[in-house]
Amino acid sequence: MMNYKQHLRRAGRIGLQVAAVLFLTSIAWVLVYRWVSPPATWLMLDRRAHAPVGKGYYGIREEDRRINYRFRTMEEVSGNVPLALVAAEDQRFLIHHGFDGDALLKAAKSNMSGGKQLRGGSTISQQVAKNVFLWQGRSYVRKAAEAYFTVLIELLWNKRRIMEMYLNVAEMGDCTFGVEAASQLYFHKSAAKLNPQEAALLAGVLPNPLRFRASNPGPQARAKQQRVLRNMRRLGGQAYVRELLDE
């Protein structure tokens, strides 16, 4: 009986030590990425190894799977880009602290009503946590890890860094990540020179860049672009994201 209790206590100590190491490692990881651009993400590595398979996917490359990824600072990107991303993905980005209860509630109501397409309620912060630190999937473990890393980046980064990371690691086509790579591929120009229409088109293909294409966009992509442009005007233009643009 005594040996059983000793083994149990020992296992408990080891478990606490492992948890402490994982916690400190995650803190260090997030702090490093506050100043250092990620060399790659799990999704980039997965796309490099395997071509995505799905109904309605467009422009999938079967042979050359090299990743097109060029990290750019906020100063090197047009102010139309963060405005378009906020207008398209998360209009309360500058207000919430990582989670948007209203968006989650609306998404839940839409999904329970039996809509044709499931609606998500993830914020930009949650998408950064998922894209930068985690693997792809829909398990409860991954969702819990996503919530954990969302809290960490909201505590240890500012909104400017979160947006800077998002516009660089978001998938914008097969093997294409970030607005610089997408801008060069689709518009043959730097992301610093994107006009509102081009920024809205790139933001409009999210979060389904393999189904909605920025090159030769179809009616659905054009409709999303127009909706994003209306939201950009309604928010008041680049003045709405001024704190993201200023040092």
From TrEMBL:
<comment type="similarity">
    <text>Belongs to the glycosyltransferase 51 family.</text>
</comment>
<dbReference type="GO" id="GO:0071555">
    <property type="term" value="P:cell wall organization"/>
</dbReference>
<dbReference type="GO" id="GO:0005886">
    <property type="term" value="C:plasma membrane"/>
</dbReference>
<dbReference type="GO" id="GO:0008360">
    <property type="term" value="P:regulation of cell shape"/>
</dbReference>
<protein>
    <recommendedName>
        <fullName>Biosynthetic peptidoglycan transglycosylase</fullName>
        <ecNumber>2.4.99.28</ecNumber>
    </recommendedName>
</protein>
<dbReference type="GO" id="GO:0016763">
    <property type="term" value="F:pentosyltransferase activity"/>
</dbReference>
<comment type="pathway">
    <text>Cell wall biogenesis; peptidoglycan biosynthesis.</text>
</comment>
<keyword id="KW-0812">Transmembrane</keyword>
<keyword id="KW-1003">Cell membrane</keyword>
<keyword id="KW-1133">Transmembrane helix</keyword>
<keyword id="KW-0133">Cell shape</keyword>
<dbReference type="GO" id="GO:0009274">
    <property type="term" value="C:peptidoglycan-based cell wall"/>
</dbReference>
<keyword id="KW-0328">Glycosyltransferase</keyword>
<feature type="domain" description="Glycosyl transferase family 51">
    <location>
        <begin position="67"/>
        <end position="232"/>
    </location>
</feature>
<dbReference type="GO" id="GO:0009252">
    <property type="term" value="P:peptidoglycan biosynthetic process"/>
</dbReference>
<comment type="function">
    <text>Peptidoglycan polymerase that catalyzes glycan chain elongation from lipid-linked precursors.</text>
</comment>
<keyword id="KW-0997">Cell inner membrane</keyword>
<keyword id="KW-0573">Peptidoglycan synthesis</keyword>
<dbReference type="Pfam" id="PF00912">
    <property type="entry name" value="Transgly"/>
</dbReference>
<keyword id="KW-0808">Transferase</keyword>
<dbReference type="InterPro" id="IPR023346">
    <property type="entry name" value="Lysozyme-like_dom_sf"/>
</dbReference>
<feature type="transmembrane region" description="Helical">
    <location>
        <begin position="12"/>
        <end position="36"/>
    </location>
</feature>
<dbReference type="GO" id="GO:0008955">
    <property type="term" value="F:peptidoglycan glycosyltransferase activity"/>
</dbReference>
<dbReference type="InterPro" id="IPR001264">
    <property type="entry name" value="Glyco_trans_51"/>
</dbReference>
<keyword id="KW-0472">Membrane</keyword>
<keyword id="KW-0961">Cell wall biogenesis/degradation</keyword>
<dbReference type="InterPro" id="IPR011812">
    <property type="entry name" value="Pep_trsgly"/>
</dbReference>
<dbReference type="InterPro" id="IPR036950">
    <property type="entry name" value="PBP_transglycosylase"/>
</dbReference>
